[in-house]
Amino acid sequence: MHLIASASYKYCPQCGGELEERLLKPGEPLRLVCQTCGFVFYIDPKLAVIGLVPLKGGLVLVRRAIDPGYGLWVIPGGFVDVGETLEKAVVRETLEEARLEVEVVRLLNVYSYKGSRTVVAAFITRYLAGELAAGDETLEARVFGLGEIPWTEIPFSSTKDALKEYLEMVKAGGLP
Fold first, then answer.
1. Which range marks the domain in which residue 115 is found?
2. What distance in Å separates the CA atoms of residue 24 and residue 27, rounded to the nearest whole number?
3. Which alpha helices (H) appear in 104-150, and where do they start and end?
4. How many CA within 13 A on the CB side of residue 2?
5. Which among 111, 118, 125 has a CA at the least distance from the CA of 76?
6. Are residues 155 and 89 in the same domain?
């Protein structure tokens, strides 16, 4: 079994020696190990957040202005910075991408997928203030009615899964 993204790393961050893939323990994935100093370079997951923003009877989606997924629709979100709480990251990303101030209501779910380095925590938020508009990394921001979600223009499994789960909760009357 090969490492995800192992080809991206060639040299040890400790001593500059060459890295090679090695099996350190049976049942675990291959690890990058420095041939010179023995440093083990663990390829850990990246943590991202998305914030579902109910607004005007629908949900806020933004059209991406960056890759991956340039020009496609997603829930506002992004990567969590070191030292940042998940909730602060949701608030920050929603403000950056949709120009909306929100507060976190609750965790919806956490999504991870085989073969992906990204783990996505999805939150339900409450709108507080701001005018919906595109931000730095978005081309457009708008509210889609719950029956108008552009499913064929959504690039990420986590976005689709979170939207489906949210819509099931709405249908079952499980949301305030």
1. 46-171
2. 9
3. none
4. 5
5. 125
6. yes
Residues 106, 57 share a domain: yes
Residues 25 and 52 in one domain: no
**Co-location of 50 and 128 in the same domain:** yes
CATH at residue 116? 3.90.79.10
Contact 12, 36 (CB under 8 A): yes
91 phi/psi in degrees, rounded to 5: -60, -45
pTM: 0.87
Two tokens, residue 106: 């609750």
Task: Please report, in tens digits, the pLDDT of each residue of the chain (176 residues total).
Answer: 455 555 689 999 999 999 999 999 999 889 999 999 999 998 889 999 999 999 999 999 999 999 999 999 999 999 999 999 999 999 999 999 999 999 999 999 999 999 888 999 999 999 999 999 999 899 999 999 999 999 999 999 999 999 999 999 999 987 75
- Per the CB < 8 A criterion, the answer to whether 71 and 52 are in contact is no
Where residue 28 sits, what CATH number does that domain have? 2.20.70.10
